Amino acid sequence: MGPTNVALVKLYRADQTLREAQERLDSATKSLRIQERRTNDLAEKLKLAQAHAKELQVKSANLDLDLKTRDAHIEKLREQQTVAKNNKEYQAFLLEISSGKADRAAVEESALALMSEVEAAQKEATELAATLETERAKLADMKGKASATVAKLTAEIDALRAPREAAAAALLPKAREVFNRLAEHHEGEALSAIMKPDRRKEEYVCSACMIDLVVDIYNKLHTRDEMVFCPSCRRILYIPDDLPPELAVHKKKSAPAIAADGTERPKESPRARGRIGDLLAAAQGESVKNAMDAGQNPQEYQVSVDGKIVGIYKGKTAENLERVILFRMEEAGEKHEVHLIPVHHTEDANADEKASAPSA
Ligand SMILES: [Zn+2]
What single string gives the DSSP state of each residue in 69-103? Predict the structure, then answer.
């Protein structure tokens, strides 16, 4: 590859390493952040509970005062009653006292009800305070235990920034800008290695999205110094270390075979279109990557969605591909029945190609 692509791969790797370290720090501090949020929520709840209890207490105190005023008033009426001038006046005081007593009884009832409300509110606040104390102690303990790990990971991240910056500085501004934009869009996956699914065939796919690439992609990347983008996912393509020219390019031997293949082979395996098509293509990409990561050759499966055959897709295993498809569908809010049948290949490369019309 030319210097631009070599520098891009370098930046890509440095960037990946930095991102991985950041992810490790993120997951190491995740439980800490959750605990922090829990104590903050509790503290907020406690504040509200305490304010509520206080408010009820004030109300209760006001009612007590009201009762005392009423008592004093009734007492005063009694005194006046004893010195009544005649029976009529006496009866009038009697009536006023009894209505005053009835009002007082109603207020007393509210005061009692309010008092039990105050008690309940105070109990709640006390319990919350105790829980908060426990959770705060837990947080302090977690922080103590995590501090060494956090310090180590933070130092690691700091150390990884310089190589990443150096790798970025080695690029021309335009390439750097393209890289940064793609990295942001694809969560760091700005580049995609070209992949040769079958060593015997001169065919390449984008390892990120599994789209078929033009046959001369290898030579283009190998001999020229320019950015080449995947026509489907737009990532910058590169030649991985495990695909040196002697493995990638079959010189004389395979050239006619490909030509013969090309005429016999159906132009493209039929594939689903639209939203489901995108989902399946993405799922295929992930499952094939799983296979490659595990050092296995991806297998082909005939995929049916809701009983309808939608095409042949590659994956690590039927289980893996199905799981990835279902996961992506669920993520996209799609609910479908998915069925996979392995496409069996014979050892012969030509028969291999015909299997896109599966026998099962
Ligand atoms: Zn792609």
Answer: HHHHHHHHHHHHHHT-SSHHHHHHHHHHHHHHHHH
